[in-house]
Design goal:
Layout: H1 3-27, H2 33-42, H3 47-60, H4 64-67, E1 68-71, H5 73-89, E2 100-104, H6 131-138, E3 142-147, E4 167-168, E5 171-175, H7 181-188, E6 195-199, H8 205-210, E7 214-217, E8 237-242, H9 245-256, E9 273-277, H10 287-302, E10 306-310, H11 313-319, H12 322-340, H13 347-354, H14 361-382, E11 387-391, H15 400-405, H16 407-427, E12 430-435, E13 442-447, H17 452-466
Parallel strand pairs: 2-3, 2-6, 9-10, 9-11
Antiparallel strand pairs: 1-3, 4-5, 6-8, 7-8, 7-12, 11-13, 12-13
Length: 467
């Protein structure tokens, strides 16, 4: 074989290898965090190359500025280098060691601005990481950066004219859902394998549902809120937005510094009993969310699940307490800062906070006493079911331009967006939203407090049925 022919063959082989490598790396944007972790553990994926892939993709993607408030490239590369060393020594700290993660911009990051989507907190730079970030970092996850969000987390839409508004993956003219809008968009657009957000009234589940992701609302009090900018501390929770139930289980474990639920023990749906919540949750459903919910229920029924439609007056009564429970606490937390600089806020968000001034301390305390009694009644009513199911949202993602132009439309859509998810927060349990196969339409499963592991195993079975 002549020199020229041999050289051309080597060049051709190198080109094919490079193309295959590039093709394989391109798949990383749509690969689950669990599979990326398995690739690192097997030696097939280099954590540094994986992090560089996402940083490069972020640098080239036209939407990065609308999704990420700021990136942490130096930190990410240093953490990836450390993960590479552990992988080479066979000393990985967990299944997500070396896997990049995006963080909502209300989780403190040492030396990096954390502003919660608000001009009121501009240039706020914490000196230490939030405890959940510290725990996840200790288990090897790689911090890619901080994602945009609704101002101070007080909107289910994700519209933020003050900083940026991430788009919905299914409709570029629509909002992504809030308040963890950038978190959802970072995963949906392939700019992070997994994201961490917060959920006070639906802020993980709404953007997850509207972007065809899995979203887990944890039980209030389960996951640390130390170093997390608060909105309404008795409702605030931390949770992941992911491509799969397995990813959600792994990320929850990383947030807690513990071990993930064993989904291998997940059974099928035969013999499982679900309650379809009729009260409030089925009202004013638009066509697509209804179709998605019915499709999911049919698939679950075909897999052996049984359903019973239930009416729960406790839910209807709890919903009447929403204004005092949420706005009074939110105003109590942020009223002083807002009054000092009201013009720094988008008026629609500011007015939601200001509504809290209408309630007295006595009304707030009595509302919580009432809610606790309603929660006890709800728990008794649903105790015989594996989970309560309902549409994650009664509406599709609203149009961004119309939200900006039509104040009434903003109010009605925001209240509708959060209505079904808020039920889970009010009733005090954990909840999981899964894609139904109808774009931007999710089905939610609600379980008792601190039952996340059982819920995740059940969610894995539902996920398989829906697939």
């Amino acid at each position: 074989m002549g020199f020229d022919r041999g050289l051309s063959m080597r060049r051709a082989a190198a080109t094919v290898w490079a193309q295959n490598r590039e093709s394989k790396m391109a798949d990383w944007a749509e690969t689950s965090a669990a599979d990326l972790g398995r690739g690192i553990a097997s030696g097939a994926i280099d954590p540094v190359a994986l992090t560089e892939f996402f940083l490069t993709r972020m640098g080239e993607h036209s939407l990065t500025g609308r999704i990420y408030a700021r990136t942490t490239a130096d930190r990410a590369l240093a953490e990836a280098e450390a993960a590479r060393g552990r992988a080479q020594l066979g000393q990985l700290r967990g299944p997500l060691d070396g896997v990049p993660v995006s963080w909502k911009d209300l989780f403190d990051t040492a030396g990096v601005a954390t502003e919660a989507g608000s001009a009121l907190l501009k240039d706020r730079v914490p000196v230490a990481d939030a405890q959940v970030l510290s725990r996840a970092t200790a288990l090897g996850t790689v911090c890619l950066g901080k994602t945009h969000m609704s101002e101070l987390a007080f909107s289910g839409l994700g519209l933020n004219p003050v900083t940026a508004t991430p788009p919905c993956v299914n409709d570029m003219d629509a909002v992504a859902g809030g308040s963890s809008s950038g978190a959802a968009a970072s995963v949906a657009f392939g700019l992070a394998p997994v994201a961490v957000g917060s959920d006070t009234g639906g802020s993980v589940r709404i953007p997850a549902a509207w972007n065809d992701l899995v979203g887990l609302k944890t039980t209030a009090g389960r996951v640390s809120l130390t170093g997390v900018i608060d909105l309404a501390a008795r409702f605030d929770t931390v949770g992941p937005l992911t491509r799969s139930v397995e990813d959600a289980a792994l990320m929850l474990a990383a947030l807690e510094g513990g071990r993930a639920a064993d989904l291998r023990g997940a059974q099928g749906l035969r013999g499982r009993r679900f309650a379809i919540l009729q009260t409030v949750a089925q009202e004013d459903l638009r066509d697509a969310p209804r179709a998605g919910f019915e499709r999911a229920v049919d698939a679950m029924r075909q897999a052996g699940a049984t359903f019973e439609t239930i009416e729960l007056p406790e839910v209807a009564q709890a919903m009447t307490l929403t204004a005092v429970l949420y706005t009074a606490e939110a105003w109590g937390r942020w009223g002083r800062e807002i009054q000092a600089n009201p013009d720094l806020m988008y008026p629609q968000i500011r007015e939601r906070f200001e509504a809290g001034q209408a309630f007295s301390g006595a009304e707030f305390v009595e509302a919580w006493r009432t809610l606790e009694a309603l929660r006890a009644g709800y728990d008794r009513a649903v105790a015989g079911f594996d989970a309560v199911v309902l549409p994650s949202s009664p509406i599709l993602p609203p149009n961004e331009a119309r939200l900006l132009e039509d104040a009434e439309y903003y109010v009605t859509e925001n209240l509708l967006a959060l209505r079904n998810t808020r039920i889970g927060n009010l009733m005090g349990g954990c909840a999981l939203t899964l894609p139904t196969g109808v774009p931007s339409c999710g089905i939610s499963l609600m379980a008792p407090p601190m039952a996340e592991e059982r819920l995740l195993r059940l969610g894995a079975a539902v996920e398989a049925a829906l697939a």
